[in-house]
Amino acid sequence: MKRLLFILILLAVVGSSRAQQKTFLPATPQDVVMYQVNPRVFASRQSLKAVTQHLDSIKALGANTIWVMPVFPIGTTKSKNSPYSISDYKAVAPEFGTIDDYKQLVAQAHRRGMAVIQDWVANHTSWDHPWIKAHPDWYTHDATTDTIICPQGPGWDWTDVADLNYDSQGLRTAMTGEMLFWIEQVGIDGFRCDVADGVPADYWHDAIRQLRKAAAPRKILMLAEGKRPDNFTVGGFDMNYAWEYKDSLVSVFTKGQPANHLFSADSAEYEPLPAGKVKMRFITNHDQSAQVSPIKEFGGLRAAMAAFVAATYLHGGALIYSSQEVAYPKAINFFHYVPVNWRSQPQIYKEYCRLMSLYNSHAAFRQGNYKAYPDRDILMFEKNSGDKRYLIAVNVRNKVCTVNVPNEWRGRVTDLYYGKSATLSSQLRMLPFEYKIMVKR
Fold first, then answer.
1. Which of 308, 320, 191, 292 is nearest to 245 (CA)?
2. What tens digit of pLDDT does each residue of 345-380 get?
3. What's the distance, Cα to Cα, between the start and end of the chain in Å?
């Protein structure tokens, strides 16, 4: 009996060890379909449990990576109730649940083949973080008054947080240790790093190297919120934001810029990028939805869906922000709980599911180059993978538009979204904000 018990315990330990070694991230960053979890749209209390209950719905969207916004205890001194004002990096705020709730979320996501990355705030802490009293030298001080200051930036009003100073080796060691806790003890698969440009690239280089070593042989994903090129070349990040492409999308859809402007915007972002690095493409995220919903920003629900296709199918690295899939029509203040009806607009949820199912099923949409067919009103381009060729067309206008069909695409095609055959002649007529995803027969 003792021998049998020993064998069962050994098998359990081995099984747990193998689970820790398994990589849950997709093969490359370009294959990432990220779902951003704002816990405050899922429940007012114990929101991590609510997110866990929602995992099947997230999985059905085609997501393979979940980014969880900060769930740490929020500072009370000078507080604005922002989740990015952190008083303890190794705890979970009661509003969101417990550390065990988080571990359960990670375990259940892994069971469904999804990775989990945690939003990390290395640029600043709350004013009542223990480091303020224990290590005031870890913070940036005013040159005149020698008092700790908040982060400084154009238009910033971040008075609820204190700026960290990475001239201190002690801070560097401590911050990396806090991050390692989530890799080693909770089992997450990487980090989205808030205000990454505010932290020296050489710190990121050392920290990311240690994180990857600790996680090995598992892979981790590192996403930078920033624009600095050295986040890639020195820091070691895998992805950052496609801010310029998003701005170009808005200009094309709402300000009359020609559709082919998006090809120029894409090239401007990708040409200087080191091989294997990826720009995350989106039509909204927590910062932007706090100002305006994508439906209002792009000029309507159909415009927002067309913009999503134009953002996602051109170059990989897709993001869906929680509430986007049910077409939530208003701005979302992530400093507070905002109830979202997950049963509203079921047809839009199904549309996202269908789009991302196609996206995941055909590697050409996520990877490789494209052939542009420039036009003012319709974004048209070809992508290919092996012997398969695909044509994507997106009407960026709120009117019927017609585009010339390239000679090589005239003839029989299959409309992948509807699974129907069609024939392309010399011109393609498209309804307002219509999109088509086709494969050559």
1. 308
2. 999 999 999 999 999 999 999 987 899 999 999 999
3. 64
